[in-house]
Every structure is written in structure tokens, then in C-alpha cells.
Amino acid sequence: MESNDSSYVSSPEAPRRRSPPPPKSPTSDSAEKQTYIRFLVSNAAAGSVIGKGGSTINDFQSQSGARIQLSRNQEFFPGTTDRIIMISGIFDDVLKAMELVLGKLLSELRSEEGSDAEPRTRVKIIVPNSSCGGIIGKGGSTIKSFIEDSQAGIKISPQDNNFYGFSDRLVTLTGTLDEQMRAIELILSKLSEDSHYVQSINAPFAYPVAHHNSMGYGPSAAVGKFQNNKEDHFDSMTIGVSDSHIGLVVGRGGRNIMEISQVSGAKIKVSDRGDFMTGTTDRKVTITGPPRAIHTAESMIMQKVAYAAEKAMD
């Protein structure tokens, strides 16, 4: 439930009050409308939400009346290694399901830490960029009121232009479960008034991948995405990366290459020092996996190469 927020833009926080007001119920009309919410969960924690043979998620759906969907293993939100949970249904059912899921994640965290005290955790909600204005309000007035009302910290990430076709932002809520749920109720109530947001409930549950140019070294970006068609066919391809650029591709302690492998779902092997492509000083980078995974990994590697080449020219 918790991860680094260093890149986030924090909304101005109002002074906290000692006792928050009782939750306000949405109007009967909005309570009956279909709505949805998407948020992130770590790949490791996703298993506890699903349960053995899907038992936990089925139980949560029965208790709440909402539909709960998860992205597949290794299918992550762009730029992260977090999977996506989408809860859809009428307003109250969505809130009930959200509370069940967050409560489960919180109980797992408590058991790991061996503490009965309720920690202040983080949950990251995915919101279309076009709908963020309604949450912020004029001069930040709406988000300030939400912070004061819920007692939760609320931060909205800047729009990320690094990923082609990507128009979602993250709204991070920090607090106890009760504080987070109050903030979620306020935010979802506001989002449910936005016709564009409500209509996007049926949008494809996926993120696009940009194609790099035929030379492979032009500007490119790849993102984790959902692969709706199961791909059992595995291929392997080897590309050459200049020995002077391989360090940035691999990253310190192999961090970059591990991230590329996790996001794409492909296995990546870099040749040893001195083991070059024939007739060159390019190191061999072998990518293995389904065709789409290979393409994603290749695009991400070439993006790193292009960045390394630009740095070398500066």
C-alpha cells in the first residue's frame, strides 16, 4: 500500500481538526449511478486480495455487490511495478468493496509488522487528467476542503508526458483506513458528477505502447499494459548496444534492466564484457518472451540508449 511519493505535487494542507465530521451521504440519485475506482496494489500484495483459487475476491464481491478486477501478473501501471485493481458498481457498493480490499491489505501489513496499532498508510488512486480539475477546485479550494474533512493527506501527481498516449494521474491518500475511506468517498462523489469520468467506466482496461522508429534509436517510450490475448509463443531476439551505453541500460546493481524485465514481462540477458556483436564493439542484449513482451522491452532499452546518446552529446 505504500511506496515512494517523492515526485508528487502536494496540495496545500489545512490545519487538522481533532474530530472529523460524520460522513455525508451522496444524494440518492448519485448513490444509484454506476461508477468505478481504480487504484494500485503491489504485485506481492495482490495475492492476498485474490485469495486461494480466487476465494477472497469472490467473497468481497458477494459481500459488497461490486465487481472487482485485477490486472494480470506482470501487467503494471506505467512506470511502476504495481498492479491495478478496478472496482465498479453503484456508489455504496464500490465504497464497501474498497473498504474490504484496503482492510485486507492493512491486516496483512499488521501481521507482517507484528503490531496492533493502526499505521498511516498510502493508497494511490488512478484518475484521468481531465477529471483532476474537479478534485483540485478553484485555487485548490476543493482539495483543501477534502483534506480538512477527511484528515487524510491528499497529493496529486503531475501529468507524466513520458509515456505516449498516457493521460492518467495518481492521487495519493495518506492516513488511517477511516481517513482514507472518507477521502475516497469525497473524491469518488466528486468524480461521479463528472460525465466524462463516468463514461470512461467502459474504456479499455489497458495502456498503449509507442512504436520506436525503424532505426530504433529515436525517441520512444513503452509502458506496462494489459495483454488481452494470451500469448504462449515465445521468441528470442538479440540487439546490439554500444559498450559505452550499456551501463545506463543495466543501471546500478542491475536496477534498470530488472525494471525493464518486470514491466515488459520479457527475460533480458546482457553479454559479458568483451563479448561483442560480430565486427562491432556493441554488447549483445538478448530478449526472450512473447512477441509483445519483446517489443516492449526493446522499446524501453532503446529509450535508455537514446537518453545515453543525448547525454554523451551534451
TrEMBL record:
<feature type="domain" description="K Homology">
    <location>
        <begin position="33"/>
        <end position="106"/>
    </location>
</feature>
<feature type="domain" description="K Homology">
    <location>
        <begin position="233"/>
        <end position="306"/>
    </location>
</feature>
<protein>
    <submittedName>
        <fullName>Binding to TOMV RNA 1L (Long form) isoform 6</fullName>
    </submittedName>
</protein>
<feature type="domain" description="K Homology">
    <location>
        <begin position="119"/>
        <end position="192"/>
    </location>
</feature>
<dbReference type="InterPro" id="IPR004088">
    <property type="entry name" value="KH_dom_type_1"/>
</dbReference>
<dbReference type="InterPro" id="IPR004087">
    <property type="entry name" value="KH_dom"/>
</dbReference>
<dbReference type="Pfam" id="PF00013">
    <property type="entry name" value="KH_1"/>
</dbReference>
<dbReference type="GO" id="GO:0003723">
    <property type="term" value="F:RNA binding"/>
</dbReference>
<feature type="region of interest" description="Disordered">
    <location>
        <begin position="1"/>
        <end position="32"/>
    </location>
</feature>
<keyword id="KW-0677">Repeat</keyword>
<dbReference type="InterPro" id="IPR036612">
    <property type="entry name" value="KH_dom_type_1_sf"/>
</dbReference>
<keyword id="KW-0694">RNA-binding</keyword>
